[in-house]
Amino acid sequence: MAEKIDKAFIETIEFLFTASKSAKAEKLTALRHASAKFELLKFLLQILWEIRALDNSKYSQLSESLNEIGKMLGGWLKQTLSQLPITEHNR
Predict the structure, then answer these.
(1) Which of 15, 24, 66, 72 is the Cys-Cys partner for 34 at CB 3.0 to 4.6 Å?
(2) How many domains does the chain have?
(3) pTM metric for this prediction
(4) Cα dihedral 40, 41, 42, 47 sign
(5) What phi-psi label fits residue 23: left (phi over 0), alpha (psi between -120 and 50 degrees) or beta?
(6) Residue 21 · residue 57 · CB < 8 Å
(7) Under DSSP, is residue 52 helix (H, G, I), strand (E, B) or coil?
(8) Nearest one of 31, 63, 30 to 46, comparing CA atoms
(9) pLDDT above 90: residue 20
């Protein structure tokens, strides 16, 4: 499980880095991939908490940070979408 969490975290960062260096159309694809990996990361951490492999205090701290990151990622996605022609949204 730890390997999956590490992999999801690293892949999220890689997609975010790619998005930061990409043109607008490619940025959207990278952000969508980052968002999917980020959701997987949150899900895996929730599983750890549910099976009691992660204590309440650590999970609470992580959740707070992850929620903030999720808001920022969602804002970046929304801003990128608003800057693209409608035909680009479904790529």
Answers:
(1) 15
(2) 1
(3) 0.86
(4) positive
(5) beta
(6) no
(7) coil
(8) 63
(9) yes
Please give the single-letter amino acid code of residue 75.
G
Cα–Cα dist 27/17, whole Å:
10
Mean pLDDT of the chain: 93
Tell me how far apart the alpha carbons of residues 24 and 59 are, in angstroms, rounded to a whole number: 35
Give me the CATH number covering residue 55: 1.20.1440.60
Assess contact for 42 and 66: CB atoms under 8 A: yes
How many CA atoms does the CB half-sphere of 41 hold within 13 Å?
22
State CA 33 to chain mean position distance.
8
The boundaries of the domain holding residue 20 are 2-88
